[in-house]
């Protein structure tokens, strides 16, 4: 639901997802998928044998994704969504930006968010749009 639209416009644009009091989703993301994305874009460190230490990755995921989003009303509890409509696309952007601040430069390749088994958003950052 967008604050900048009328009730009629919200209903037309968002259909059954339009609800003034919000509605819920159980989004799925997968650290293994993130790691596979990292493997595509980076080389394995010859000393450690890893692209990234999984303990570090788990900490980054906890800080960037779980702490701000898990069991939260996105529209009321997450400042990012105070003025941004909480679509799955914007959830992917939020996760991208949050991880981008924590991961070493050039490490993040893409973010994939599953709203349902049928609705999946893949976001590769702003640079991907230009290409």
Task: List the SSEs and their pairings.
Elements: H1 7-14, H2 31-41, H3 54-69, H4 74-77, H5 88-102, E1 111-114, E2 120-123, H6 126-130
Antiparallel strand pairs: 1-2
Helix pairs in contact: 3-5
Describe this structure in words.
Helix 3 crosses helix 5. The chain starts with 6 loop residues before the first helix and ends with a helix. The protein has a two-stranded antiparallel sheet with strand order 1-2. The radius of gyration is 17 Å and the shape is elongated. The model has no long low-confidence stretch (mean pLDDT 79). The chain has 131 residues and is mostly helical. The relative contact order is 0.14. Helix content is 45%, strand content 6%. The chain has a single domain, classed as Tetrahydropterin Synthase, Chain A, CATH 3.30.479. It comes from Tyrannus savana. This is 6-pyruvoyl tetrahydrobiopterin synthase. Involved in the biosynthesis of tetrahydrobiopterin, an essential cofactor of aromatic amino acid hydroxylases. Catalyzes the transformation of 7,8-dihydroneopterin triphosphate into 6-pyruvoyl tetrahydropterin. Keywords: Lyase, Metal-binding, Tetrahydrobiopterin biosynthesis, Zinc. GO terms for molecular function: 6-pyruvoyltetrahydropterin synthase activity; metal ion binding.
């Amino acid at each position: 639901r967008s604050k900048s639209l009328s009730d009629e416009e919200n209903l037309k644009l968002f259909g059954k997802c339009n609800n003034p009091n919000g509605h819920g989703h159980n989004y799925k993301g997968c650290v293994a998928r993130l790691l596979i994305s990292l493997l595509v874009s980076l080389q394995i460190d010859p000393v450690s044998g890893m692209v990234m230490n999984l303990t570090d990755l788990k900490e980054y995921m906890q800080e960037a994704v779980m702490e701000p989003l898990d069991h939260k009303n996105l529209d009321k509890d997450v400042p990012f969504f105070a003025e941004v409509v909480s679509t799955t696309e914007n959830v992917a952007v939020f996760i991208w930006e949050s991880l981008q601040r924590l991961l070493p430069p050039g490490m993040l390749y893409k973010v994939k968010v599953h709203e349902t088994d049928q609705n999946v958003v893949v976001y590769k950052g702003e640079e991907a749009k230009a290409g």
